[in-house]
């Protein structure tokens, strides 16, 4: 009896590892060379859920369908995960996806902190990285990678479009409320550069953690500085809360202007037109821009659960569509074997899709397309659901983006 | 309050029959068997399981063992151990990335910072006992969290990214997961055996005396506060080592590791495994880390399950896995 | 020099007012913690989660049932209080004979469960809850700042609630039983008072206070699952500074530390989130029992 117990002791100690063993990695990837796996890694529960989240996954699925890749004998599978806006969580998922689950492409990745962490991993493992919702220019700057395409927008283009327009109206002293991570810092730096180049001054800046709820004391600090413009270098619900609380504290009553440096149409939807009217914002896609964007929106709308696509979602669609075109061109096996070669081929091929029209991908991984400045409509101007934007200004693709020479991307110098 | 509160960690009275021949490093017989088993798992593990997962597990196991030194053998419940773990991670990452130190030195730097932080916070916290001690450590850890949030070197929400694993002793590249694994396994074993040595030393016996009856230890002439502070510092230093190792494994140090939820997690691991047992924390870490890993796709449900385990342990299984198994087998693990 | 200081203060006055609003929440939460601790000797780690549940109940009442802010201010604490009764009866009461630390661990586990459930159900980005019509509309012009009416109301409500609690405990017969039971439960039981029931109700009352604070907070901070956990640790520091000794002590410390935090935002904003913890360390070194605590 005692003896039995002793032997049980051993198995008992090993017991703790059973769950680990049970979940043993399926190391062997699918044997058919024509099977690809796309991982959509984004925020499914936090501040950026609306601008990425399940809508991005639906757009990726739409791209697979529209590409007709299945008919060419390539089977594409989609997996998705929530990185919870934490760089370590995102990095762990990406490693496991690539090491164990055989993921070939990682798509979307909002939150620049996570976006940069994934950038390094995908490069190390030689896979493909199609970033749409991350904003930092580092992705095509110092940390640019031969495995990365940065599709939709970045902080330079936002600063130039929105910041430039604000400065033109005589806003020459700024105070920034900045989200304390790569994206916020980047956006603040780029906007400051435009403000200062136009002869303006930056009077101060305050940094807040992601996912803050009470911005009143930051707003008062901004007011204390007597700046004419409060620049919001943040995004998602952080921006929404800032705009709401600025109204609550009567910040704009004393003539201070709010510059929303990044806003998606979903944010306008959450704010409501009454609160958002008159704000300007920059996007590279609007569902009601032209016949092609409307056609795309109509195709995908049914699977979005009431949401509408923003530029970030459109970027997921378009980048995956272009990737699959490249796969069809290269052949599934070749595309799977070498991520860098696939991205090189993507850069060599011109792009064309319903969301962004015709365009190109630059050597440093930057996708080029026109950029639009919109003004949010007044409630009485809006004629239907999600009819929110008036087009104010279009910046052509050649002028909108940071010149390669300023990016210090090592790929280009080489 | 009604009734005399029982001691927080009930000592297991059963001694295993002291058979000669099978007792190494001060372990009793059952512990020796368990230790050999542990060695076997360490050796075979990386060939069976995903090495990155095993490394994560070992880092947390060392963290839990360090924490257990304090709660299991001194009876102090620290609710702020994340500050040592997280800060150790930040400093090791900074040392490896910015100063270019070799990995073993970076890990040691993490441990050193843990020790310094441990001396300061311990000096403040040991003025109070029981719940107050727990709340004070928690509050101090939150302060460290805010400092990490704002200090420029921690990189805010970005954390310190792309930390190089470097070359061990300047010779062996740690970039391949297997090489890194052997270093992590070595660090874990060294820490584990060090803690075991401390427990069985005369110093460790005094700690146990303090846990069992503090006034009597004082009346016997022991300077209880000094003992507590030394134990606190040792525990903090080892937690720093664990955090530093983890940062090198994943190449990233972030706020997650300094957040108060991490302090709660290590309490949970130790509680599940068995407070005041030698192998309990390792088992607890294995259970919790595997659970987090394989249930990750369920998102916030992991938190709910962890909470349920917490509640179940407190209400029904206060001795933890090692304690319950030990009671059942009539041995001390 | 002094003029400069006054100028700074004038500019910073709005921050001090905001500090008072934060102080109102510190006071209400540390009050609830003190009531529970005094009677049950349990540090209620789930206090932050219960604060959050209070806010969510208000949100659900509005969006699912159509019950507005004012009824919610009474209903939500009752609902959450009833939930507290269940928790106390089924779990917490089983730990009274053990070390107090087990109470802390149990409520920590409960906090994880509650937070996780709400994160699953509602995501973590927060839900909007509009202030009642009576208190919305244009902000009040205080001369040096615009203050939303609602925030004024929060301070007033917190002061009234704290006073009411203090009066109940210090001036009524029920309060006298409570205080007596805190000193010697067995003796009070011998006098024929149902002590276990009193403990249950005390826990429920403490939890209801947290929920009340939650409803107050809903229109200010958007309703989200983490709203309590970040606050509760600061409140722990407040409690350590004040000492667990007196009800009035926890209220005064709560408001006082809110003000200190606001002042720090004027002179050295970077330190505003750490100042309370620094004060805690200093108080512990000088007076380990806290400002109002008995050693």
TrEMBL record, chain A:
PROSITE patterns: TAT (PS51318). The keyword Signal applies. Residues 36-377 form the Leucine-binding protein domain. Keywords: Amino-acid transport, Signal, Transport. Pfam families: Peripla_BP_6. Residues 1-22 form the signal peptide. Belongs to the leucine-binding protein family. This is ABC transporter substrate-binding protein.
From TrEMBL, chain B:
Its main location: membrane. The chain crosses the membrane at residues 33-53, 60-85, 105-124, 131-153, 180-199, 229-254, 266-289, 301-321. The lineage of its organism: Bacteria, Pseudomonadati, Pseudomonadota, Alphaproteobacteria, Acetobacterales. Keywords: Cell membrane, Membrane, Transmembrane, Transmembrane helix. Signal peptide: none annotated. InterPro entries: ABC_transp_permease (IPR001851), LivM-like (IPR043428). It is a multi-pass membrane protein. It is found in: Cell membrane. This is Branched-chain amino acid ABC transporter permease. It comes from Teichococcus vastitatis.
TrEMBL record, chain C:
The keyword Nucleus does not apply. Its main location: membrane. It is found in: Cell membrane. Pfam families: BPD_transp_2. The chain crosses the membrane at residues 12-35, 42-62, 68-87, 99-118, 150-169, 201-221, 233-260, 266-286. It comes from Teichococcus vastitatis. Belongs to the binding-protein-dependent transport system permease family. LivHM subfamily. Keywords: Amino-acid transport, Cell membrane, Membrane, Transmembrane, Transmembrane helix, Transport. This is Branched-chain amino acid ABC transporter permease. InterPro entries: ABC_transp_permease, BCAA_transport_permease. It is a multi-pass membrane protein.
């Amino acid at each position: 009896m005692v003896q039995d117990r002793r032997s049980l002791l051993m198995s008992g100690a090993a017991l703790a590892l059973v769950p680990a063993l049970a979940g043993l990695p399926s190391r062997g990837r699918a044997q058919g060379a024509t099977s690809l796996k796309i991982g959509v890694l984004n925020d499914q529960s936090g501040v950026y859920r609306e601008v990425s989240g399940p809508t991005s996954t639906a757009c990726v699925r739409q791209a697979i369908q529209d590409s007709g890749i299945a008919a060419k004998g390539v089977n594409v599978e989609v997996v998705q995960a929530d990185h919870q806006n934490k760089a370590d969580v995102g990095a762990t998922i990406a490693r496991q996806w690539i090491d164990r689950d055989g993921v070939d492409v990682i798509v979307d990745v909002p939150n620049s902190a996570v976006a940069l962490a994934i950038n390094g991993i995908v490069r190390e493992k030689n896979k493909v990285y199609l970033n749409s919702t991350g904003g930092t220019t580092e992705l095509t700057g110092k940390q640019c990678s031969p495995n990365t395409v940065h599709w939709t927008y970045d902080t330079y283009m936002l600063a130039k479009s929105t910041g430039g327009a604000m400065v033109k109206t005589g806003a020459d002293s700024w105070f920034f409320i900045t989200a304390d991570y790569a994206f916020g810092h980047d956006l603040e730096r780029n906007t400051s550069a435009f403000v200062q180049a136009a002869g303006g001054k930056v009077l101060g800046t305050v940094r807040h953690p992601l996912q803050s709820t009470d911005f009143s004391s930051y707003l008062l600090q901004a007011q204390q500085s007597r700046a004419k413009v409060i620049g919001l270098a943040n995004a998602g619900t952080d921006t929404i809360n800032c705009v709401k609380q600025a109204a609550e504290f009567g910040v704009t009553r004393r003539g201070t202007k709010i510059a929303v440096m990044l806003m998606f149409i979903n944010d306008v939807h959450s704010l409501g037109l009454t609160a958002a009217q008159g704000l300007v914002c920059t996007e590279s896609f609007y569902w009601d821009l032209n016949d092609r964007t409307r056609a795309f929106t109509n195709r995908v709308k049914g699977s979005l659960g009431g949401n509408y696509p923003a530029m970030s979602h459109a970027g997921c669609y378009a980048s995956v569509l272009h990737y699959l075109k490249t796969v069809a061109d290269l052949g599934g096996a070749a595309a799977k074997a070498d991520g860098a070669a696939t991205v090189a081929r993507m850069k060599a091929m011109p792009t064309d899709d319903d969301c962004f029209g015709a365009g190109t991908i630059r050597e440093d991984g930057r996708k080029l397309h026109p950029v639009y400045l919109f003004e949010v409509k007044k409630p009485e101007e809006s004629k239907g659901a999600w009819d929110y934007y008036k087009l104010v200004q279009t910046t052509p693709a050649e002028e909108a983006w940071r010149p390669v020479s300023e990016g210090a991307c090592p790929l280009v110098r080489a | 309050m009604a009734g005399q509160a029982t001691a927080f960690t009930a000592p297991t009275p059963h001694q295993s029959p002291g058979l000669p021949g099978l007792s190494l490093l001060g372990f009793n017989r059952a512990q020796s068997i368990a230790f050999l088993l542990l060695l076997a798992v360490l050796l075979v593990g990386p060939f069976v399981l995903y090495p990155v997962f095993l490394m994560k597990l070992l880092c947390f196991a060392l963290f839990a063992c360090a924490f257990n030194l304090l709660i299991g053998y001194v009876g102090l419940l620290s609710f702020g151990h994340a500050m040592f773990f997280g800060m150790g991670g930040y400093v090791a990452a900074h040392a490896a990335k910015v100063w270019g130190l070799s990995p073993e030195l970076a890990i040691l730097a993490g441990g050193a910072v843990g020790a310094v932080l441990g001396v300061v916070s311990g000096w403040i916290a040991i003025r109070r006992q029981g719940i107050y001690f727990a709340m004070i450590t928690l509050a101090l850890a939150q302060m460290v969290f805010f400092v990490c949030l704002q200090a420029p070197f921690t990189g805010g929400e970005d954390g310190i990214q792309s930390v190089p694993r470097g070359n061990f002793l300047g010779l062996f590249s740690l970039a391949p997961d297997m090489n890194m694994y052997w270093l992590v396994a070595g660090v874990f074993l060294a820490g584990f055996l060090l803690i075991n040595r401390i427990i069985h030393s005369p110093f460790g016996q005094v700690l146990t005396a303090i846990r069992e009856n503090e006034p009597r230890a004082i009346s016997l002439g022991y300077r209880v506060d000094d003992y507590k502070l030394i134990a606190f510092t040792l525990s903090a230093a080892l937690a720093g080592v664990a955090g530093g190792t983890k940062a090198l494994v994943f190449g990233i140090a972030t706020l997650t590791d300094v957040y108060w939820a991490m302090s709660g997690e290590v309490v949970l691991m130790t509680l599940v495994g068995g407070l005041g047992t030698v192998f309990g924390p390792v088992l607890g870490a294995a259970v919790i880390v595997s659970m987090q890993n394989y249930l990750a796709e369920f998102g916030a449900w992991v938190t709910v399950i962890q909470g349920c385990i917490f509640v179940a342990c407190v209400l029904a299984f206060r001795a933890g896995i090692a304690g319950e198994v030990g009671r059942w087998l009539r041995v001390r693990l | 020099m002094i003029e400069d200081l006054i100028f700074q203060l004038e500019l910073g006055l709005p921050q001090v007012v905001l500090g008072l609003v934060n102080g109102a929440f510190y006071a209400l939460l540390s009050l609830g913690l003190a009531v529970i601790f005094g009677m049950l000797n349990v540090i209620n780690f789930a206090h932050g989660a219960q604060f959050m549940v209070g806010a969510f109940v208000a949100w659900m009442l509005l969006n699912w049932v159509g019950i507005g802010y004012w009824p919610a201010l009474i209903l939500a604490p009752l609902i959450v209080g009833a939930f507290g009764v269940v928790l106390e009866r089924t779990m917490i009461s089983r730990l009274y004979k053990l070390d107090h630390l087990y109470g802390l661990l149990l409520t920590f586990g409960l906090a994880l469960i509650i937070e996780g459930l709400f994160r699953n159900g509602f995501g973590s980005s927060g839900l909007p809850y509009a202030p009642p019509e009576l208190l919305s509309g244009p902000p009040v012009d205080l001369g040096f700042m615009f203050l939303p009416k609602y925030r004024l109301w929060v301070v007033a409500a917190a002061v009234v609630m704290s006073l009411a609690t203090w009066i109940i405990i210090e001036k009524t017969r029920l309060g006298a039983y409570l205080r007596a039971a805190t000193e010697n439960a067995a003796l009070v039981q011998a006098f024929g008072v149902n002590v276990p029931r009193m403990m249950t109700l005390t826990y429920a009352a403490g939890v209801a206070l947290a929920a009340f604070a939650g409803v107050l907070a809903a229109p200010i901070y958007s309703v989200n699952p983490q709203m309590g956990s970040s606050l509760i640790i600061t409140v722990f520091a407040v409690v350590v500074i004040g000492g667990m000794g007196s009800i009035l002590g926890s209220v005064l410390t709560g408001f006082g530390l809110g003000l200190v935090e606001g002042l720090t935002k004027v002179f050295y904003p970077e330190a505003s989130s750490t100042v309370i913890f620094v004060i805690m360390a200093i108080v512990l070194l000088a007076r380990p029992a806290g400002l109002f605590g008995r050693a």
